[in-house]
Amino acid sequence: MSLAGWPRDVPASVPECPAGWVVAPPDFVGVGAQKSGTTWWYSLIASHPRVHDVPGRRKELHYFDRFWDEPFGPAEARKYSSFFPRPKGGVSGEWTPRYMVDFWTPALLRESAPDAKLLVILRDPYDRFCSGVTHDLQRRAPHHPIVTDLGVRKCTYRQQLRRMLNHFERDSLLVLQYERCRSNPQGELSRTLQFLGLDPFEPPPGLLQYGANVTEGTRYQPEPRVREAFVDTLSGDLTRLLNDFPEIDPSLWPSCEGLG
User: Is the pTM here over 0.85, yes or no?
Assistant: First the structure.
């Protein structure tokens, strides 16, 4: 097996700070989950008149990815703020879905942005799994079980969120459901803006319609026995997730069928 052709997510470059703007830690950070509408939701937030980006800055900074084998100290924590210039009174943030997956990231995020509001969108685990594996295979991932193993790990939502909450208070985390965002985008956007301390507003025409970063092409559809094994593997984590986060509606997730 070779990983040589599988693209890596490269951390972004530090943008220039326009004259008169300030830099500070982000006001909000989206931490998950991959293939759960995060690009769409970030674009809605970023369209708010108080939210500011510098030209060319990406939604996903992947700032903490490399620190699994590189040193991290106060200088690296301070540098994170350099990615968030904004005018005084403005709001800035990012959304990198793998932040809640990488076990070393929550502590580094807390050190770098202790007051940030955290956002996560969760999607039916099996649906997210199939979409995520499709996405990876389309990005030249090897045709190897490691791809599905990673896909399962990205669906252990409860484990990931509890690890994040070892470093942040519960009221600093907003848990959204992908399916609710799709069926009631204006209502869930209002919830999101209230959580971020932003006034209600009307997004640009058409932006409420889902369609950002949609995976196209042939979708990965494992055999029924693989689905059964997936649900069995995730059942414990999923049961604990529903107990810890009662705002999640299990009726929207077929993966929850049969859980007692």
Answer: yes
